[in-house]
Batch of 2 targets.
Target 1
Amino acid sequence: MCLNKNHYIIPIFVPHEGCPHSCVFCNQNTITGERNVVDSQYVRDTIETYLNTIPSANTNTIEVSFYGGTFTAINITKQKALLAVAQEYKLSSRINYIRLSTRPDYINKYILEHLRSFDVDIIELGIQSLDDDVLIKSGRGHTRQDAFIASNLIRESGFILGHQIMIGLPGDNEEKDVKTVEDSIDMKPDLCRIYPALVLKDTYMERLFLQNKYEPYSLKRAVEVTKLLYCKLIAEGIKVIRIGLQTTDAILPGRDIIAGPYHPAFRELVEGSLYCQMILDYIKSSDTNYSIAINSKDISKLYANKKEFFNDIKQQCSTRKLVVNIDDSLQRSVIMIKNDENARILSLNDFIIRQAKEGKINNS
Ligand code: SF4
């Protein structure tokens, strides 16, 4: 599977369909921003609308993704109707992949056979945490054992496995988040998403928060913890395809987000902090001026959160000049750093792997 710049996703949001659970953090309609009736006609119309704006599947990767609720808990007739439309597009080579998300306790070998018969490729499991106490306090209704069993079944059946992890849930802490990611890595997912828990309107977590029984992570703490988890996953070659909740019309601070570590570019905070850590690590041993060249598409990471991290390293190197230049001949995720003596290319990925190997990614 190639997740490159020509990878297009056609999202079909299936809000709260078939889900009998009440996770404390979930207001599914708010999360998806979707109020439409999702039936086979809706799936067809959505795919057609997107395909009208996407170049051909012969030269690009196009994926239909069923997000939102617990797909494999939907009424089986409806599942078949929705999947049949996606399968039709896949069989006619107008799309390449079919993805869906579900819960660990709605996976078994019969469900997987059914998904296989509709040519589903990618199954993302909302494991959220692998700490049973956190799972109970979050009202998940499944155990860590369920996540292990489902993940193994998915992998053994040849599907691409994704894990969705939520940090900062009730009863959670950094150590538990780290353990969750380490246990997730043991299950060898192909990809992962990390979401900091937010207090959404009309959820049980809102009540807990208003009664002072739940304290969400601060933004700073969420970035630090996510950075740690991100590095561990990247160092193991696991793609982190999303960090932080996607902004939709329905997810706006002050409206549906009551509290918690929301930032519209949360991933940039994590990556920006790592860029600056990499630069500081390189320049700290020398007392000369430096110039940094970076691809224009990465400059927002270097300057994330109104230059918070960049200004921090400038302050730590106050006796030296640090000049930044744009150079689009550089690849993404690398920088060229120069002083009077030499020039070096620094790769963010290599930095993360080296930090992980040297055990420098600590839970701070
Ligand atoms: S299982 Fe998913 S859809 Fe159902 S309540 Fe929990 S988060 Fe919401």
Note: The first helix runs from residue 28 to 32.
Target 2
Amino acid sequence: MTRIYPFFIPHAGCPNRCLYCRQDRITGIDQAPSPEQVAKTLDRILPPQGDGEVAFYGGTFTLLDESLQRAYCAAAARYIEAGRVGGVRISTRPDALCATDAERLRQWGVTTVEIGAQSFSSAVLRCVRRGYEPHQITASLDRLQEVGLAAGVQLMPGLPGGNRAEAMDSVAAAIALGPDFLRIYPTVILRGSALEEMWQAGEYTPLGLAEAVDWCAEILWNCRLAGVPVIRMGLQSSPELEGAVAAGPYHPAFGQLVRSRLWLRVLLRGGELTGRVKAGVHAADLAEAIGHRRQNITALSERFGTFSLYAAEIDRGHAIFGESTFSAAELAAYQE
Ligand code: SF4
């Protein structure tokens, strides 16, 4: 996985404040670093040789003054030339990336662009004040792919006006665009956001943790089938974030919960198909197959009376029941 050296530019360049967003609260940073500060930090933290990416997150990079965009990229460029880092990654909005922007970014050394799509539903996008239509997400991905930049898509299941079907349709729409990766951030309510006011007024109910984990397990399975990597599920935990979350499906190990949930689907199906109450998985898969606080073993034991797991000499992403080996992707098609 690409090593990322992140710099946060909270809300810089943003044309409005989206309903759910408080980048300043979740990063604990209220001012973007100057390009000089970025260069100084890079000089200190980059290895002598490396192929990571310097990333600018938390704002709308392509709506910053052009001179500032150029200066940020130039701060990284000298380290790219020296072989200490491989490129630059930025995040932006779908409606802030014309063909000229994409080409300019490429010339400045940007290698990856993350598009904050959030949803492909017009109704949801309107509800959360995003200010663009789904076709603009498609156009932004096309532009990145035309100039040869890696493109990622960020989605937020559980936004106001959305539901499970909308979340799954959004993932399918994103996969259809052929992105290099997805990030999935189930919606949480941040203190001081307009979404918090909606919640307090009883106009919005966030997903529960179990529900969000279940939705994301389905999303992850679909992405795996399509061969699209999901590089993150759930917000990166930090003391700042923990202090900023008012409600919603936040968990510091959210991604692990989702992968374990997918294993539960695999093991339930395998147990039912084979009648076996003992299964083997690769040693590196064992912790997630067992589940957080042995949740999966508890659920499987409730279903089958007893159930145990062991480390087996099989490929990762597979499970063996007696003599029968199955791929997890195949068994996970099953839902309770
Ligand atoms: S979601 Fe993105 S565009 Fe909206 S306020 Fe936050 S950083 Fe800015």
Note: Residues 11, 14, 17-18, 21, 23, 58-60, 93, 116 surround iron/sulfur cluster (CB under 6 Å).
